[in-house]
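User: My instructor asked us to take a sequence, write out its structure as tokens, and then describe one feature of it. I'm not sure where to start. Here is the sequence I was given:
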Amino acid sequence: MIEDFSIVFGVPKYRTSKPKKVTRKFSFTRLLQPIDNLVTCPTCSNIHPSDTICNACYAKIHALTTEIKKKMMNYNPYVGEKQDKEVFVRFKGEPEAPAAVVKGKRVLEIDSERPTWFKKLTLKE
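Assistant: Let's start with the prediction itself. The structure tokens for your sequence are:
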């Protein structure tokens, strides 16, 4: 009775061989495809797709954010202070921030200079 319903189920009669799968996966139409929307990065002049950040600039951002994350993870909220939700990042060589800006925030001091691409926060009171 099940043999009569094999048409309804849509099950292949024979197993697909590996060469057929490989030729379907790596056919000549899929080997080389042109990449559209390539642009040049204005800071480092690397070529990358327009909807992404270039790899060299991302490596700089990733290194800085991992340093900030390490500083944040060294903080133990259960020793002495309550846990704050917001963080104020202060780089080496910057003036002390006004009390109104730092009010209620944790201050993370980074030992390097502020990169030019890193967004400067407004220090207005």
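For the description part of your assignment, you could build on this observation: Residues 67 and 110 are 8 Å apart (CA to CA). Try explaining in your own words what that tells you about the chain.
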